[in-house]
Design brief:
Blueprint: E1 9-12, H1 16-28, E2 36-39, H2 43-52, E3 57-59, H3 63-66, E4 70-73, H4 80-86, E5 97-100, H5 107-113, E6 118-124, E7 133-139, H6 145-156, E8 159-163, H7 169-177, H8 179-196, H9 201-221, H10 226-232, H11 239-250, H12 252-270
Parallel strand pairs: 1-2, 1-4, 2-3, 4-5, 5-6, 7-8
Antiparallel strand pairs: 6-7
């Protein structure tokens, strides 16, 4: 276990991703609701979260959250400059820890905006909402081994955690954070095809989702290359190879490659 164990934890922007990270920590006892100071943009959001999590300290004033020993920064990247300008300087003897989940925003930019903080850049993806996520981590200067271990424990509550060179995080984001949207489009299109072929809509969606989930489990558990699995189901002159031919003529592979590259480039632009 990490010897870094902050008694107070601030959250600036308690949206769905921040909730996905925070709530498992509360449920496991790693954090107490009384030790969390969260800041949100509106009074209705604050009231809804207080009702959802009794005892949680939620306010539209971020001052208390900024006073914590560790802070999760989860606002939109476009809000970063204004949020940083309004943030008070830390008052403690030790620099506090700032964990950013802002898409594309680099450690260098965060360190420039928050010079008195120790910076962690985290890239979690949407499946964290069901504790099946992936999170990439990059460390700023001065983050101790104990702090690194604590941050890894935080994100391990919601999935697999990888430490990566920051230069790889844009590609990681494009694949793991934007990727669920690409997969969702594939699932939707497959279900549409099944409806066109005669299945009811609800059943088509259920079967498409189960097919994707089962395929991912098979690839992962048997450590198969995707090409191996494709060949396993492609009989000579059969239905699957006919479908693959249609996908190849429509440029599915190129479209997905370009989608990942476009997402990675946009991540770099946001930074």
């Amino acid at each position: 276990m990490s010897s870094f164990s902050p008694t107070s934890f601030g959250v600036i922007g308690l949206g769905r991703m921040a909730q996905a990270l925070l709530f498992p920590l509360l449920e496991s006892g790693q954090l107490s609701a009384a030790g969390v100071q969260a800041a949100v943009a509106s009074l209705p959001s604050a009231e809804r979260l207080r009702q959802q999590r009794p005892g949680l300290q939620v306010s539209t004033d971020p001052a208390a959250a900024w006073g914590c020993a560790a802070v999760l920064l989860a606002v939109k990247p476009q809000q970063l400059e204004a949020v940083a300008a309004a943030a008070p300087a830390p008052t403690g003897a030790e620099p506090p820890l700032l964990i950013s989940v802002l898409a594309g925003v680099t450690v260098a930019r965060l360190q420039r905006l928050f010079p008195a903080w120790r910076i962690v850049r985290a890239v979690p993806n949407t499946p964290c909402l069901v504790r099946a996520g992936l999170t990439g981590l990059a460390w700023g200067e001065g983050v101790s081994a104990e702090q690194q271990a604590w941050v890894q424990q935080l994100f391990a509550q919601v999935g697999e955690v990888l430490q990566l060179p920051e230069v790889q995080l844009d590609a990681f984001l494009a694949l793991t954070s934007s990727g669920p949207a690409f997969v969702a489009m594939v699932a939707e299109a497959m279900a549409d095809g099944a409806v066109a072929a005669g299945l009811p809509r609800v059943q088509a969606h259920h079967l498409a989702h189960r097919t994707l989930a089962g395929t991912a489990a098979l690839l992962q558990e048997q450590q198969l290359h995707p090409g191996q699995l494709k060949d396993m189901v492609s009989s000579p002159g059969g239905t699957t190879i006919a479908g693959i031919r249609a996908l190849e003529s429509s440029g599915l592979r190129s479209a997905l490659i370009e989608a990942v590259l476009a997402a990675a480039e946009r991540s770099r632009q946001l930074g």
